[in-house]
Amino acid sequence: MAALEIPQSSDSLSAEWLTAALHSGGAGNARIASFEYEPIAAGVGFLGKLGRLRLQYADAGDGLPRTLICKLPTLDEKSRQLAMMFRFYEREVSFYHEIGSRAGIRVPVLHHGAADPSNGDFVMLMEDLAPARVGDQLEGCTAQQARLAVASIAKCHAAWWQDPRLASLGWLPATNDPIHHFAQPAYQQCWAPFVQFVGDKLTPALKRTGEDLGSNVIRMLDGIAGRPQTLVHGDFRADNLFFGGPDDGQALAAIDWQVSSRGGGAFDLAYFLSGNVSPQTRRAIEMDVLQLYVQTLKEHGVQNYTFEECLEDYRFATLYCLVYAVIIIGTLDPTNARGLANFHANFERVAAAITDLEAAATMPR
Question: Across the strands, what pairs with 262?
């Protein structure tokens, strides 16, 4: 069967194409008569454009999805070039094809996915997770949501802890893979506009730390990669998490695996807690949540990772989260009000976490 052409935009979708896409995913009895496309999650993602498809079948369509989520590339050319450079679209499609339900954390079912790394075209048709509630990074997670998220990602990490299968996945780079070394010059290029953009929110101490970090980004990546390796989500934040489900109010699903890698799991932990929970809530629950992470790992077969090791890895990874905050300045859309507000909230939380944890002391020298 010839490969399906990848639609260039939502306007290129058709009932015939959707029918063929569902057939390629195993729904051989599907025949779509018509559909409606509704843009969703505006201002939330930087690298993808999401829409909800409402499907009408030519027959009863028993057992077939009535709605799907369609993911296409961002329309922002700078962000698309970034995605092509790091092969993010190819990475996410490969994740669903080769890991998917074996991730150790709930992920949506992929009904069709394809990516062309030569031009950045890609498409995914995924399970619609409604009525689960998507998180809100700008609002921040509650203590209860934070505990659920940490326990869930710990199960994922445990499922892939030191697993030799990781190295066999050619599309899944190590955290310090040469493809990620671009982060150092990107950080150095973005530092000056970042300093100007955040203004007096950047304390003198954190400014010194940020300046020192500019020549240490690759060493930081080496440090994260040097910890016990597991499957790292890489963008484990509230906007990529769905809380609850039709049968289990305590269920959690994670989407957006474009920046997944293999490395130290504490990065996901630090990225989530430092940027998605208010400083007040984080301070109140931080050590208990780290204990929960370690205990959940143990309950799922990881016996040789102590709380003390986790705390040090967490502090180290929290410092690296400043790299994300700085580099993202290069992809910010000044017309995206929510994106700008999200940036400021994330930076202020990360800055507080770095200060509270004295994370600068973990920087390689």
Answer: 174, 231
